Amino acid sequence: MRDEAVAWAVRVDDPGFADWDGFTAWLEADARHAEAYDHAVLAAEAADAGLIVPASTPVIRPAPALRQPLPRRRALGWLGGAVAASLVAVAGVQVFQDRAQPYAVETAAGETRVIALADGSRVALNGGTRLTLDRADAREVTLERGEALFTVAHDDRDPFTVHAGNAEIVDLGTVFNVVREGGETRVGVAEGLVAYNPDAENVRLEPGETLVDAQGVIRLGRAATGDIGGWKAGRLVYEGAPLTQVAGDLARATGTRVAVAPAIAARQFTGVIALPEKRAGFVAELGPLLDVEVQPGEQGVTLSPRNRVAP
């Protein structure tokens, strides 16, 4: 059992580890497995600090409902059965429990997913999105790329914070949408209130208000609250949006790579795009609506100027 626990500790520590179902099944197969796993990980922590203590020392853990036995630490490949057999010190146990436990959730282009956080909040991920979360703190989220709609369980004592690029978006009781694409961050508030970069610009956004931060240049706007996060209902709504933004949204939603020819990259589009259930090949049908030529290529499509026919 101890050797199995050590093996799982090594595997879970790998940043590419994905077999959470198998790990959970092993934990649930025997009530002693969770404690053995905790001992294996904590033994490595103690060894890093030059500590060796008896295996009989109990591990101090959160209540079962709050327990998250999935910490990652640096490589544990050196850890063998002899170390596991002499496990775990009382020193540093509580410190270990407070350590960050980051993990990532990622969607492929064209895929969506909704995750529930331990604090009662929910996050809907659009396609091509990557979030980094922390099992030790459900109130801190980093949007590395893509788009996410946050429905936050509000807590005045513990604000919910989204990091996107160099910016912080702090919940003040809210449903809000965030896009991180290239060097640009876009925020739209459907309900409640958020503070954008409270320690710097401190822009307060109310329902129906939007913000675009393009490499430090902030532009404010407005949108219907029902249109914010409309991608989740299969609806993309635009009011004077550049075609580059439309292309990025279509790529996330359909799984098709969409580029824009430089000559029309700044052209603005106003309208509504209703996404069908089956989205393969859908972008190719949007030429008339967007007033562009949709040119297929090896890696996707390119939106190009239309060839006008003289009367």
Model description:
- The chain crosses the membrane at residues 75-96.
- Helix content is 22%, strand content 32%.
- By secondary structure, it is an alpha+beta fold.
- It folds into 3 domains: 2-98, no CATH class; 102-227, Jelly Rolls; 234-304, Phage tail protein beta-alpha-beta fold, CATH 3.55.50.30.
- The strands form 3 sheets. Strands 1, 2, 3, 4, 5, 6, 7, 8, 9, 10, 11, 12 and 13 form a 13-stranded mixed β-sheet that branches.
- A hairpin with a 2-residue loop joins β6 and β7 (167-171).
- It starts with a helix and ends in a 7-residue tail after the last strand.
Which key features would you list for this structure?
single chain, 311 residues, alpha+beta, Jelly Rolls, Phage tail protein beta-alpha-beta fold, 3 domains, 13-stranded mixed beta sheet, 3-stranded mixed beta sheet, 18 strands, 22% helix, 32% strand, globular, transmembrane, FecR_N
